[in-house]
Write a structure and sequence with these properties.
Elements: H1 2-13, H2 17-31, H3 38-52, H4 57-70, E1 77-79, H5 81-92, E2 101-105, E3 108-112, H6 121-134, E4 141-145, H7 154-160, H8 162-165, E5 168-175, E6 180-186, E7 189-192, E8 195-199, E9 213-217, H9 224-233, E10 238-242, E11 250-256, E12 262-271, E13 286-287, E14 292-293, E15 296-297, H10 298-309
Parallel strand pairs: 3-4, 4-9, 9-10, 10-13
Antiparallel strand pairs: 1-12, 2-3, 5-6, 5-12, 6-7, 7-8, 11-12, 14-15
Helix pairs in contact: 2-3, 2-4, 3-4, 6-7
Protein name: S41 family peptidase
GO molecular function, one term: endopeptidase activity
Pfam families: Peptidase_S41
């Protein structure tokens, strides 16, 4: 009842630009790890002044989004109702089935992990089995290609490659007040803090988490794709190849503002399994400044050479 009453209050308040700005600022104050930045208080004063001078909701959206970028938050955004519908349509895609490529090449396994959604459980389960079954032939290791992974459901992605990841704590999410929530896999279930995030398909006794893994990253690796990459960034038998990621390695939640607008807000920063907070973009261990030359994928070639050097 209380939650419903609060939603109704927000719906009433957001009818005016002043109320709309007020609700958005309250959400950021309450949940954003960037709200502690002194520049946010300055921006709030400027926003109140803009509204008092007759600013529209569109003006409020522009100001809040510009301020979030100024604070270093590349992932959050306030979106109007029309844009929300456009983004939802784009997220659903064009109907083309998603596919996780798992292939045995010479003496290593190649896995191309794309964006997955909460609805891709069957795709993740099939990839989980394919990765587990292909591990026997991967004598030299695995190449995990995340260069076209723009985010989505991190839990479905982790489920898909669980045989490579192994069980245990895989990282942390750190809120604005410093509270840490561990996340990972335990007894065939993904977990976040004390909360179960869903079952992981049984991948048998053959764990592949000791294999060398070359992870391919780049500016197209975003959000949950970066979370997946972070799992391997501190592992002794793993290396990141390519270019820096897009810089959205954090936890983001969606808050409806009552008028159809949505505030997609960063609510926690990502930390690796070593507890160190990821500083924006994940950077490769092996930097490939030019990804392609003629017909060669230089990032892939470098990853292959690294795996082969440890297999001789």
């Amino acid at each position: 009842m209380l939650a419903a009453a609060l939603v109704f209050q927000d719906r009433i308040r957001t009818r005016t630009p002043a109320g709309f700005a007020g609700v958005a600022m309250e959400k950021i104050d309450e949940r954003s790890p960037y709200a502690a930045d002194p520049r946010w208080n300055v921006a709030k004063s400027e926003l109140r002044h803009l509204v008092s001078m007759g600013a529209t909701k569109s003006d409020v959206i522009l100001k809040i989004n510009a301020t979030l970028r100024l604070l270093g938050d590349e992932h959050s955004m306030l979106v109007d109702p029309v844009t929300v519908k456009e983004k939802m349509s784009a997220f659903k895609g064009d109907g083309t089935p998603r596919r996780i490529e798992v292939a045995s090449i010479d003496d290593y396994m190649y896995v191309k992990l794309p964006t997955l959604t909460e609805f891709d459980e069957a795709i993740a389960a099939k990839a989980n089995a394919d990765v587990s079954n292909g591990g026997a032939a991967a004598e030299c290791g695995v190449i995990l290609d995340l260069r076209e992974n723009g985010g989505g459901s991190m839990w479905k992605m982790i489920s898909a490659i669980a045989p490579l990841v192994g069980e245990g704590r895989l990282g942390y999410f750190v809120s604005g007040d410093g509270t840490r929530q561990a996340w990972g896999i335990r007894e065939n279930r993904a977990f976040l803090g004390e909360k179960s995030m869903g079952a992981i398909p049984a991948y048998g006794k053959s764990m592949l988490s000791d294999l060398p893994v070359a992870v391919l990253i780049g500016p197209g690796t975003l959000s949950s794709g970066e979370v997946v990459a972070s799992v391997f960034s501190t592992r002794s038998k793993a290396r990141l190849f390519g270019q820096p990621t897009g810089g959205m390695a954090d936890a983001r939640e969606a808050f409806s503002l009552g008028d159809g607008s949505i505030l997609f807000l960063t609510t926690a920063r990502l930390a690796g399994r070593d507890g160190v907070t990821v500083p924006g973009r994940l950077r490769p261990d092996v930097w490939i400044s030019q990804e392609r030359s003629e017909e060669k994928d230089l990032t892939l070639v470098a990853a292959e050479e690294w795996l082969q050097s440890g297999c001789r």
